[in-house]
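Hi support team,

I submitted a single chain yesterday and got back a structure, but I'm not sure I'm reading the token output correctly. Could someone confirm the output below corresponds to the sequence I sent? I've pasted both exactly as they appear in my results page.

Thanks,
R.
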Amino acid sequence: MKQAIFLVTSLAGLKKLTFKRKVKSLMNDQIQVTIILAMIQFDDCEIARNLIHTLFNAKRLAQLKVVSLASLMADEPGVEVAADEQFHADFEDLPSRRFEATTALERPTVRYIKDGEIAAEVREDNNQAPLLKIRYNDHQPIQAAVYEAGQQFGLLAYHDGQLAQALLLNQQGQVVYRFIRHTEPVNFAYTMGRTSKLKFTELISEEDEEQRVIYRDSEVQAYYEVVGYQNYDRFDSVYSFYANLLEKVVPADAGLFIDLSDNPQLSPYLPQQLIFNY
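Hi R., thanks for writing in. Yes, this is the structure output for that exact sequence:
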């Protein structure tokens, strides 16, 4: 193995102790490490970069290569953003309040006020270039524009305060990929012996024919459908999209490291790829 590619799909994965340990171990073995920030909540990428700077010393940071979906797709062809999906910063003439960062993980924030309420806010880097512009209605986010190195690369649309769609843009500001959030109910069944000390006090227990105790529960989970505008590909799962991306960017002599939580969903799309977990 000459290179190691780490696919990071969430801030939780980045915070795992196993992530830090494996990156350090590979770097100690003189293996070039590349971290792909692939979060669909695009504004998490800036937080992820800040976290990486807290995990490793300056010498290791100089050797690490960190790339985002924005940088990987910068030169890909796309289509123009529809007029009703464009972000309009029509709030910038409103009265504003500026809040300086108080920790290394925070960024300066400017909040714009209308009728006594926060109508929008802008998070900035230390040079006052925008990182995130977000508009609110009735105290809920409705739309956001995400920036990297001062250039807009993402648009986020919200419904009832939850991310509904994310548009990934190329360096010309065209849409390259659209991520569409869906939800579905998922049922769970926890089966254990009658002598088990584990109990779910908020659930009603049942017994099966073998007198095992069963607790049933359900929750609504989110998943993403992805549309690519180069060839109008449609991916029924974000993991199918990730697999397509990795097949293009992971060299033959590289090892692929993915979050253990992503393994059940991603590995079936990469049957020939040797995968390591963190």
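A quick pointer for reading it: The helical segments are 11-14, 17-28, 44-55, 58-63, 69-72, 238-249, 263-266. Let us know if anything else looks off.

Best,
Support desk
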